[in-house]
Write a structure and sequence with these properties.
Alpha-D-Glucose-1,6-Bisphosphate, Chain A, domain 4; globular; 7-stranded antiparallel β-sheet; 33% helix; single chain
Length: 155
């Protein structure tokens, strides 16, 4: 399996509570996150959603789809959300939020390995393309979230 380590930062001009509200409710992400085709809850969690499992179907700029199940393992409103990934990607994601001068800084650390045979086979030569595709999808997410919260502020 090919392993990847990504760090994404978003600067969102909105209060941390508003950013947390949208990030915590991943069932709403397809409304504002281009590339996210579907989110399906497979298993409920406790009242904080610890143990909740959701299946995410992603597409990017490159012509492939990834289906990833995410199990929430840590919830610390409004500053941290951690999940374990399984399926076509395996690993761990940690989303941390902090207050900034202009609103909220979101940092997402994503430590994963691919399980699709063709991705592992192409990994040694296609790694820069896979990383670029990941960055594109994450930019779509940051831009979509920023637009959503800006529209809410102006309404």
């Amino acid at each position: 399996m090919a392993t990847y380590s990504f760090v994404t930062r978003w600067e969102i001009r909105a209060p941390i509570e508003a950013v947390w509200e949208e990030l915590f409710h991943s069932e709403r992400w397809p409304r504002w996150w281009k590339g996210l085709q579907q989110v399906v809850e497979l298993q409920g969690g406790d009242p904080q959603r610890i143990g909740c499992v959701r299946r995410f179907t992603w597409t990017g700029w490159l012509p492939y789809t990834l289906i990833v199940d995410m199990r929430i393992t840590r919830v610390e409103p409004p500053v941290a959300l951690e999940s374990l990934a399984s399926g076509e990607l395996e690993g761990r994601g940690l989303c941390r939020l902090s207050r900034s001068h202009h609103g909220t800084t979101v940092r997402y650390d994503w430590e994963i390995r691919t399980t699709k045979r063709w991705m592992n086979w192409l990994g040694p030569v296609a790694r820069p393309l896979f990383a670029w595709n990941h960055d594109v999808v994450m930019r779509w997410g940051g831009g979509g979230l920023a637009r959503l919260l800006e529209d809410q502020r102006e309404a």
